[in-house]
Amino acid sequence: MAVAIKMNKGKKVSQIVTRSCNDYLIEFLQSKNTFLKLYGNLEKAMTSALPENVGENCRKCKPELFDKDSFPKEAGVTVLGNCDFYRSQMGVTYLLAANEFIRIIKSNELLFQNKIFLKKLTFQFFACFGYIKGKGIMVFDLSKLCNKLLENGFMLISAIFSKSDSLKNLNIINDTIDSIDTSLVKIKLYNSEDLSRLELQREFFSKKKEFYKEKLWLDQYAKPSRPKNFGGIVSARPNRTDIAYYCYYTSETKELKTNNLFPTKKAWKEIGELFGKDDTNIQKAYNKIYSSKTERLKNTKTRNIEYVLDNMLATYPKAKKLALDELKLAIID
User: Fold this and answer.
1) Domains of the chain by residue range
2) Of all residues in the chain, what percent are helix, strand and coil, respectively (each to 5)?
3) Structure pTM?
4) What is the pLDDT of residues 268-297, one digit of tens each?
5) Are 246 and 285 in contact (CB under 8 A)?
6) How far, in Å, are 4, 73, 298 from residue 68 at the CA level?
7) Residue 229: which residues within 8 A CB-CB, separation 6 or more?
8) To which H or E segment does residue 96 belong?
């Protein structure tokens, strides 16, 4: 496979390098020995796939059955046998699959630059080959490979997002969703390919969008508020009771999103870190209002519910409705 390499201005034509697909796979695996081992396993599988009787009258498999004078005497001339027809077919399948894999990788800068993911994906590439024993046929599961590429791509993007600013992530995500939507419209118009993987990508980025919208909002509350003094009483909002009500209403309506399963200890720690408060105190306040409706709807708690409604539930319509309903009950009581 001759690959055109983009040259910088001033480079001489003699500096163009031609690389085979095996050269790329060795680079991806970061080891020639690893490649030779994986490719050796392919060759063994090719031999196992050959029809049982193909070697019975094969000049290559059983040269001892043929007169020595019938073999070419010129140096460098390859002896072809019955098995070579099948080996050539399987070899073409390998080359086509390898070229497609390399094309996909090189067109994806994130995957191409990440050596750890690239090595892992190359192992998965070799795992996508299969054989029909006794038929001399090699098959390649391109769908399986595409799913693996998509899965690793999602993991890599998530890792990059986790190290970036939430607002920056949202801008990237919005642009990506817009691009995917445009592609989906074109595909639906021309019915040119399967929609499933594009729809998966859209679902992935949509979920990331919701996560970073919430994280951006929570980050604002994670910053310590400047204490205000009202008649000698120091107030810093949201306090642990406010946060407890926020957690209660959003969790009851299935709108609370945490990296860890709520209400595990890890989830409480995560919430404590987001709000800059002691997670144990928040959990205690939550347990009180969760376990007792009477406690939750005390008239003295209306200020907490009002604060949560006004400041913490803007993007949670179901939780906001529940809080409003409970506020009415608390006022009546």
Assistant:
1) 1-68+80-163, 164-223, 228-332
2) 65, 5, 30
3) 0.43
4) 999 998 888 999 999 999 999 999 999 999
5) no
6) 45, 9, 102
7) 235
8) helix 83-106
